[in-house]
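Field: COMPLEX_INPUT
Field: COMPONENT_COUNT = two
Field: RESIDUE_TOTAL = 589
Field: MODE = joint
Values follow.
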Amino acid sequence: MITENPKAIIAGPEAETMVRLENVSKQFGAVKALDKISFEIRRGEILGLLGPNGAGKTTAMRILAGYFPPTSGEIFIGENSLAKMPEKVKRMIGYLPEAITLYTDMSVMEILNFVAQVKAVSRKKRKQNIEETLCRCGLWDVRNRLLGQLSKGYKQRLGLAQALIGDPDVLILDEPTSGLDPEQINKIRALIHDLGREKTIVLSTHILPEVSMVCDRVVIINHGRVAASGTVEELEAGLDADHEITIVMGDRHRKNEVLALLESIRYVQRVSVLEERADRVAISIVIAHNAEVRPNINRLFAEKDIPLLELRTNRLSLEEIFLKLVVRENF
Amino acid sequence: MSKSLVIAKKDIGSYFHSWLGVIVLVLFVFMMGALFSLLLLSYGKLSLEAAKTAYEGLERIKFTHFVFGSFFVNMGFALIFIVPIISMKAFSEERKHQTIEFLFTYPLSDFEIVWGKFLGVFGFFLILILPSLTYVFLVRWLGAPLDWGVLWVGFAGFLLLSAAYLSLGLFISTLTDSQVVTAMVTFSSLIILVGWDWMAVAFDGKLAEFLGLLSPLAHYRDFTYGIFDFSHVVYFVFFCLYFLFLSLRSVETRNWKG
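Field: COMPLEX_OUTPUT
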């Protein structure tokens, strides 16, 4: 089992910790949904929460949002404990649940007005807060429409809008793009990215590319435990896996010379020809332990005066990292 | 407290966003009106016959008691049908549509949510019975002799009984996300309470006394006679608090059930 990989912990104390989970466990009867989860999120960071279905993502999100308390452990938002000052802390949090179904018989405006009142936004600020949120989420044109008449994309935006009411510091978004079409997904992602500049965001998703696109850091949860955490690059490095470089060379006749030279480079495990054409040869090089050999390859080609047309690293995708971690954890 | 009012306001509004609220309002007002008219007519007939036969007892059949007393007794039975329809929306609908998840994550305490929901169902109920106040003015305008004490005591008793029934319905609505199930179970529970009262009337001795002590209708009866007994008020307040407390505990079960 992997716990926190030392390489995967981000260095740099420049930003303060905004959200902190300390040994949070949650038990439903005999089922242990979360088992001593601990992680931190710094101010202004977008954290992606990943995990296979049933890993405890939604439970973690719900606990963070104050939907129910953890069985043990504590959550701090800023300096405040969620258990000790629930109302104050909840006012600092905006939550978008996975299944977003607000009151279908109310108009967008009525819903946001209700939310603002419940979140105790003062009467003076209420109008401004609602109007800003409407514009920001692209809901201004549909503000008087009933929620029941809106498309899924608008509903999702309204979900974000209600989370943003009251200007919370922390946003907790459970699968914010699920069930949307590609264009809507892009819009929502852009909005989240935009929000990430001023707010601390925790978002869970099962769409892995989304994580690399939107998130600064990743926490992978499996079986209710933190399987790994760090930036995508750190996770790749931390896995200590082999990776592959593809090069394309120009001079076909010197192929064998190049292959021999490449094999002599340290850490190179395997060299094979991928494709051979009249004017170019594509070669795959497998490198052990994530070692950096690109400068060596470059130098070699320069010294021998062989044209190097292309050099590209095929890193492990997040998908592969995820699978490796989860599989390693499971067996 | 003010947040509970916000929830109550939203819930009352939601009755009128659907046809349910409007239909219930129309039916209820029609039913109240029909009942009241029938009582007025039968009193008129009775008083005419009394005049013909010079029936001495007429003096004692006080107008207020005959018309309004009977009105409140009958309305007490009408509650059995109307309360399940009102209270079924409270929690069941929000659970069904998962909107309750939002309420739990907003800066609200569970108590504020339950209290807000109760104010919502009770507020809607007040709107339903508001038109009945016009009967009082109608009767005044007709020049009938009104005993204000009897009238207001009956009215207070009716409000207490409905609050008690609604709190029971509210609790049942926290148990399931199906509005139909909530309405059926609430209806059955109210029928059982009526049966309970009949048993109290049918039996004798200690058993009858015990049954009567717990029966809401037994406590309600004095109000319809125009008798104000503070112990009955205490009974109804406890009845409400008990079911609001159960609702609160029921809402808290999400903490360990998920």
